[in-house]
Amino acid sequence: MTFTLDDVRTQTYKPRDAWWTVFLVDPLAGRLVVFVANHTRMTPNQLTWGAFILGLGSAGCFLMADWTWLVAGAALYHLSFVLDCMDGKIARLKGTGTVLGGWLDYVFDRIRVLTCTLALMWGQFTITGQGVYLLLGVVVVFLDMLRYLDALQVAKVRRQMRRTLPEDSLEEVDLQQEFRTKFSWYIGLRDWLRDHRIRTHLVSGIEFQMAVFIVGPLTGQIIPVTVGAAVLMLVFELAIMFKLQLSSRDLMRALAK
């Protein structure tokens, strides 16, 4: 069977994704998936391993600390992320996904973030002597862990809410009527972003990683970029919690009816 780019878009692209992925990864990853699916026997797990190896290469470059090496590390990190997106697309396109593959993908992602963080911040500390880089390393690892745990728990709570409601009451919670009333401007922005396949969570874990490991090294402004990205991600995480609180209120009203 021969796959086309339209097949990849319709069968593997997420309905909504991070804007970094939509604009800077999918255009390349989608075309590479067509080539890999049609002309090679590469498996999703092999792509996962490839992404992991590139991630380790990125960490090695970051450890060298010089700006030229930082640029190389940023490039390798982006390519690692492209491969990381491709493994899931190949799995969905060919129906070859496995439980082991999902586990490898998750574990390798966490190891990549940890090793790249340690290498980047330690490398900068060794050439500048500024202890703030060591503190930033701790912050980056902590926020990456927090973001994943929060995402898992929010998804779990939403599933529980939907199981609690009768089927004909689900729509009321989905509308989040109180939120619509107070923040009508946001609803318009959200709808526009959805039409372009972009999540309203504009600074998620993906954008945070790319700021730390790509934007910061490329611009030579690792400290301000990392701090700014961390603040923005926390703001968007708080916004998710606020929306979840409003949804819970809608749930209670729907149950009362």
Describe the structure.
The protein is an all-alpha fold and 257 residues long. Helices cover 84% and strands 0% of the residues. The chain has a single domain, classed as Four Helix Bundle (Hemerythrin (Met), subunit A) (Up-down Bundle), CATH 1.20.120.1760. The chain is built from eleven helices and no strands. Helix 3 runs antiparallel to helix 4 (67-94). The relative contact order is 0.12.
Short structural summary:
This protein has about 260 residues and is an all-alpha fold.
The oligomeric state of the chains shown is single chain
Class based on secondary structure composition and strand pairing: mainly alpha
- Major beta sheet summary: none
Content of β-strand: under 5%
> From the 3D coordinates, which CATH architecture would you assign?
Up-down Bundle
**Which of globular, elongated, flat, extended, rod-shaped describes the shape?**
globular
Could you say how many structural domains there are in total? 1
Radius of gyration, taken over Cα atoms and rounded to an integer in Å: 20 Å
Helix content: over 70%
SSE order: HHHHHHHHHHH
Under CATH, the topology is which? Answer: Four Helix Bundle (Hemerythrin (Met), subunit A)
- Please identify which CATH superfamily we are dealing with: CDP-alcohol phosphotransferase transmembrane (TM) domain
